[in-house]
Amino acid sequence: MQMTSRDSVMVSPSIIAGDLTTIGRDIAGFDGSVIDLLHMDVMDGHFVPNITFGPGFIGDIKKHTDIPLDIHLMIEKPENSLDEYLRFGPWCTVIHYESTRFPIRCLERIKKSGSRAGITINPATPVESVYDILPYCGMILVMSVDPGFAGQSYMPEATGRIEKIKNFAVSNGLSDLLIQVDGGVNTENIREVVSAGADIIVAGSSAFKGGDVNKNVINLKNAALI
Ligand code: DX5
Ligand code: ZN
To answer: What is the pLDDT of residue 2?
Structure first.
């Protein structure tokens, strides 16, 4: 495996791995100098089997924190409700390639709103499927689990997929494209994931285990960069 040395990585804790009944108060204790983004997993019970929360809940979360929001839409036809999420001014907004026939229209709407436009692909979707639309994206999220639940194990094939996308981005001059990775990342495998080319790591279980999210994120960053 080609190893790239890096001096920084962003970490985005996925709040569904915490206690959603107290998360508003819990995130008030999150250190903004450690926690770069807050990952919001929106699940509609159709695109994925699970249901989490929608825009009303995200609006309430935003009242409790200045940490920028990272919205991951696991919903069918995101074009029908995108504006309800964009009104919160998220730092990035990610749609699934598999969820819409109009990814470019969605990406352009996200970008126009001032949010970083992200496309994501499930583990079974060939990475080549999105090569033509990467110029419309500010970010690609490589799913390293089938989406739907926190607490699943990292699929090792994801590492090669991250490398393929990184190489494609470098050879095609896509210098602003960030690579995000989501699913099963922990202190044991984060170095491999970041070395393969990831700029932003989503961390659910590994960020919330034991309850000290600030400390867990520091540990993740240290493990990524040693
Ligand atoms: C999975 C979600 C992930 C998940 C990450 O469908 O998109 O964001 O919450 O949790 P872990 O890190 O526990 O896999
Ligand atoms: Zn997610």
So the answer is: 45
212 as an active site residue: the answer is no
Q: Return the CATH number at 103.
A: 3.20.20.70
Mean pLDDT value of segment 160-180:
98
- Mean per-residue pLDDT for 8-37? 97
Task: Please report whether residue 19 resides in a domain.
Answer: yes
- Average the pLDDT over 206-212 and give the result: 97
- Kindly report whether the global pTM for this prediction surpasses the value 0.90: yes
Ligand 1 pocket mutation pick from 15, 16, 141 by most atoms within 8 angstroms of CB: 16
Q: Residue 3 domain-assigned?
A: no
Of 14, 5, 4, 2, the residue nearest 202 (C-alpha): 14
Q: Which residues form the domain of 89?
A: 10-225
Residue closest via CA to ligand 1's atom 9 equals: 150
Is 132 an active-site residue? no
Ligand 1 mutation target, pool 23, 182, 193, most atoms within 8 A of CB: 182
Q: Does some domain include residue 2?
A: no
Q: How far is the CA of 40 from the centre of ligand 2 (A)?
A: 7
CA 109 – CA 117 distance, rounded (Å):
8
Over the chain, what is the mean pLDDT?
A: 96
* CA-to-CA dists, residue 8 to 70, 160, 171, 204, 214, angstroms: 18, 21, 22, 20, 16
Q: Which of 26, 36, 41, 70 is catalytic?
A: 41
Q: 67-87 pLDDT, tens per residue?
A: 999 999 999 999 999 999 999
